[in-house]
Amino acid sequence: MVCQEEILIEKVCDLYEQISSLETLKPCKNVDMLFTELVLTCMPPSPIDVTKLPKTIQEKRSHLIRLCGEAEGYLESHYSAILGSYQNPLHHLHIFPYYSNYIKLGHLEFSILSQHCSHVPSKIAFIGSGPLPLTSIVLASNHLPSTIFHNYDIDPLANSSAEHLVSSDPDLSNRMIFHTNDILDVSDDLKEFEIVYLAALVGMNKEEKNRIIDHLEKHMAPGALLMLRSAHGARAFLYPVVESSDLRGFEILSIFHPMDEVINSVVISRLYLPQLRCQ
């Protein structure tokens, strides 16, 4: 009898072959259909541990995550351009197909944040904000109405698109600042933030992700919070996994694995104070 894990892997590998043979990953009927099927395949709770899969499957998973990241970038750019054509882009965010997921994820992350932060943060850094910075927009609009958000992205076009989206809103245009930087080139400025968010697709594999986490550990303010997105079970075919052992120098405060259509797991950690690092 074929086990559920084998059926899952076979289905994901079949979709991987179809996706990797596409001529483009830009939004269109075929691309949308394949990625929707992939997400629905990986969404149900699964005990699978992707780190224990054979090397050939691991390699396909790594490539699939990059393909997902590329497709997600195209999708966000596509909808950012559509939204940017409206006089008030923020009034039309619901047209983005995953907007409701961001509303749920924002509420979840704010709830977790509130358990570990006793006051309203004055400044938050979001690393990897992209052309459609929905996390920052949702948190700034719904949960943190006085906080200033510093959004970092390596792509100047993404920042230009994002800045255009909030430019017509008198409140958010004052509280959303966009920086075009590779985060590995940002050092002293990171000490200004009480909370740093790291987007799921900043650092596509373990080596890249750990290099960024190590950089944040060196330059964030002691006691500051680091909020990361990870993945669990079959959802790890879509996004990189951040494990507790990757967060050297940080105290893990909470790990939450959603069971609904919110795909990303949420990890919140605190940078150890200097005196605690030596113990």
What does this structure look like?
With about 280 residues, the chain is α/β, with parallel strands linked by helices. The chain has a single domain (about 1-279), classed as Vaccinia Virus protein VP39 (Rossmann fold). The chain is built from 9 helices and 7 strands, in the order H-H-H-H-E-H-E-H-H-E-E-H-E-E-E-H. Strands 3-2-1-4-5-7-6 form a 7-stranded mixed β-sheet. Helix 5 (about 135-145) links the parallel strand 1 (about 125) and strand 2. Helix 4 (about 100-115) crosses helix 5. It is globular. The mean pLDDT is about 95. It catalyses: 3 S-adenosyl-L-methionine = nicotianamine + 3 S-methyl-5'-thioadenosine + 3 H(+). Its EC number is 2.5.1.43. Belongs to the nicotianamine synthase (NAS)-like family.
Précis, in short:
With 279 residues, the chain is an alpha/beta fold. The chain is built from 9 helices and 7 strands; from the N terminus they run H-H-H-H-E-H-E-H-H-E-E-H-E-E-E-H. The termini are far apart.
